[in-house]
Amino acid sequence: MPQTLDQKLAILSDAARYDASCASSGTSRRSSRDGSGLGSTEGSGICHAYAPDGRCISLLKILMTNFCIFDCAYCINRVSSNTPRARFSPEEVVQLTLEFYRRNYIEGLFLSSGIIQSPDKTMEDMVRIARTLRQEHNFRGYIHLKTIPDASPELIEEAGLYADRLSINVELPTDASVTTYAPEKDPATIRKAMADVRLKKEASKDQTFSGKRPPKFAPAGQSTQMIVGADGATDSTILGQSTRLYSSYNLKRVYYSAFSPIPDATAKLPLVKPPLVREHRLYQADWLLRFYGFEVGEITAARTDGNLDLEIDPKLAWALENRALFPVDVNVAPREMLLRVPGFGTKTVQRIIATRRHRTLRYEDIQRMGASLKKAGAFITAAGWTPGALTDTESLRARFAPPPEQLSLF
Questions:
Q1: Residue pLDDT, tens place only, 326-361
Q2: pTM of the predicted model, to two decimals?
Q3: What angle do CA 155, 159, 165 make, to 5 degrees?
Q4: If 0-12 CB within 10 Å is exposed, 13-18 middle and 19+ buried, where does residue 271 land?
Q5: Distances (CA, A) of 388 to 149, 198, 378
Q6: Do residues 97 and 47 make contact, with C-beta atoms less than 8 angstroms apart?
Q7: For the segment 157-184, what is each residue's pLDDT rounded down to a tens digit?
């Protein structure tokens, strides 16, 4: 019996949860409030992604199909898996997107897919969906397409004309792991596709000889997804690869997806089962690398195995290992050192630097600036405040690490 649209939606929206975040940061504001189109990139809805300015974007996140001709060992949708299958036609995806929007459920689309027939055939259908939404329905909402690196460059280029963001998955942290667990995928092909997207994106900013700019290409840039825990890569290896990806392809984001063992596939994979907290720590470390001036070697130096401390956040772990550098005086310390104080974010540091030009800062001033003084207090001095011997006390880590729990025998 043919599947209903609701049955397909149940299968393919659930399957899409393995595709990491569909954040929409970087896209421009568009609205249909003037009656000239359909959809927007503003507002709130049921599935949320947040832009840097705080806007909340609601997205329909689905796979076009979870049928796949590839047999990647870590993927529940691989050809040898016995998972329930479904497939949307391009027209059905367009219909769902428009109907969800009209019901005020969503304001955009995140679309990924298994590989059916061939990479080009799959990419053609995904581009057709985006083109139909933009050209036939004047849809102005956010569109994120998970593109297929094996597809022809012409199809990926066309996808960038309709999508706000493109993403191409590097899959695993190392080429060796991709070769072992996803042998039908070629790391060199993936990198070439990512480089092509970067070049197209950069070319779209240049003016032509006539003074006109070429059509916009993926205005929200590109991102990638890396599965962590499906192989034996350490956090140091993962973060080192991420650093190279950011610099080589001008990525907006690397998304880390904690591997969840799949019942009929675990025999093919090493017994590495990281909890979601590892994924969370990688995101925190990624943030430190991008915005706080840290290096990979510094962040992962607290442990001898090259992995992050799962009990405390990476900045705090670094500070505890480098107590000789603390406490720092908030009234004179350079910006680079203030950024390394646990509990200080970039906005707090900006406020400190701006305010101390005019007056001496006290402990209460730092508190009002939004700092987490539960963490920062042991690592700073200010007018009227010194941590004394607290910075060097052996029990300092215990103040932040979660207390031990009695495990149940039943």
A1: 999 999 999 999 999 999 999 999 999 999 999 999
A2: 0.87
A3: 140
A4: exposed
A5: 56, 51, 8
A6: no
A7: 999 999 999 999 999 999 999 999 999 9
Amino acid at 342: P
62 - beta bridge partners?
111
Q: At what angle do helices 119-131 and 90-102 cross, to 10 degrees?
A: 30
Dig out the tokens for 123 from the structure.
């990419």
Structure-token match 């310390």, residue found:
333
Domains delineated in the chain: 5-273 (3.20.20.70), 322-399 (no CATH)
Cβ atoms of 120 and 151 within 8 Å: the answer is: yes
| CB atoms inside a 10 Å sphere around CB 183 | 12
Task: Select from 188, 205, 222 the least CA-distant residue to 26.
Answer: 222
**Taking Cα atoms as reference points, which of 383, 377, 370, 372 lies closest to residue 396?**
377
Which residue type occupies 365? D
Which residues, in sequence order, are bridge partners of residue 223? 167, 253
Question: Looking at the chain, how many residues does it have?
Answer: 410
CA separation for the pair 193, 410 (Å, rounded): 52
| Residues facing 15 on adjacent strands | none
Q: How many CB atoms lie within 10 A of CB 261?
A: 13
